[in-house]
């Protein structure tokens, strides 16, 4: 498999470019690519560019071939609204959600979230999750990187206008996820934290027009629930 790399600057149509230092380090020092090896670059603007690596001392360059208009995005615009989870669970959630095709991720602070982040710590963590999303795109073949939004409170998120459908996983709901009506636009999927949504949060979701859905009689962990729901939605309305 040819190694794929996200290039944070727009790629020209042809010619040779110098690779950013971080990209070059990952290619040569981590993946042990050598001079003359093939690679694929993408800049997030759509499509990908086959290239050939050139190592000249401590600098790396790439000779670009013709851009290929390859898209691997799902026809279902799906936003994962994930309550903050502790430990490295958020990394795993972001990685797998991107692999499964979400178009964006919104981390929210819930009442029962064990993880509490604010200020500089919150900004750094979001920056880290964005890099996790980049790596997941490199691995999965996606050429557009989903944005990880700044951490927000649930009620602040619910107050934002939305033209599509909002679904919240609710253990008390009587509607199965796959029995929900097919959306005309984007889907925002809300997943609670380790302790679940509070009664007040579920009430706020309902007041904001969120449809409550269930994944069945079994209780899933927060890091499992969203991924399972995304896979089910992709199989039903997406491209699985």
Give the arrangement of secondary structure elements.
Layout: E1 4-6, E2 15-18, H1 21-30, E3 38-42, E4 49-56, E5 59-64, E6 78-83, H2 89-100, E7 104-109, H3 119-140, E8 147-148, E9 152-153, H4 154-158, E10 165-169, E11 187-191, H5 199-207, E12 211-213, H6 222-237
Parallel strand pairs: 1-3, 6-7, 6-11, 7-8, 7-9, 10-11, 10-12
Antiparallel strand pairs: 2-5, 3-4, 4-5
EC number: 2.1.1.193
GO biological process, one term: methylation
Keywords: Cytoplasm, Methyltransferase, rRNA processing, S-adenosyl-L-methionine, Transferase
If you had to describe this structure to a student in words, what would you say it looks like?
This protein is α/β, with parallel strands linked by helices. The chain has two domains: 4-64, Ribosomal Protein L25, Chain P (Beta Barrel), CATH 2.40.240.20; 78-237, Alpha/beta knot (3-Layer(aba) Sandwich), CATH 3.40.1280.10. The chain has helices at residues 21-30, 89-100, 119-140, 154-158, 199-207, 222-237, and strands at 4-6, 15-18, 38-42, 49-56, 59-64, 78-83, 104-109, 147-148, 152-153, 165-169, 187-191, 211-213. Strands 6, 7, 8, 9, 10, 11 and 12 form a seven-stranded parallel sheet that branches. A five-stranded mixed sheet has the order 1-3-4-5-2. Strand 4 (49-56) and strand 5 form a beta hairpin. Helix 2 (89-100) runs parallel beside helix 3 and helix 2 (89-100) runs parallel beside helix 6 (222-237). The longest helix is centred in the middle third of the chain and has 22 residues, at 119-140. The radius of gyration is 20 Å and the shape is elongated.
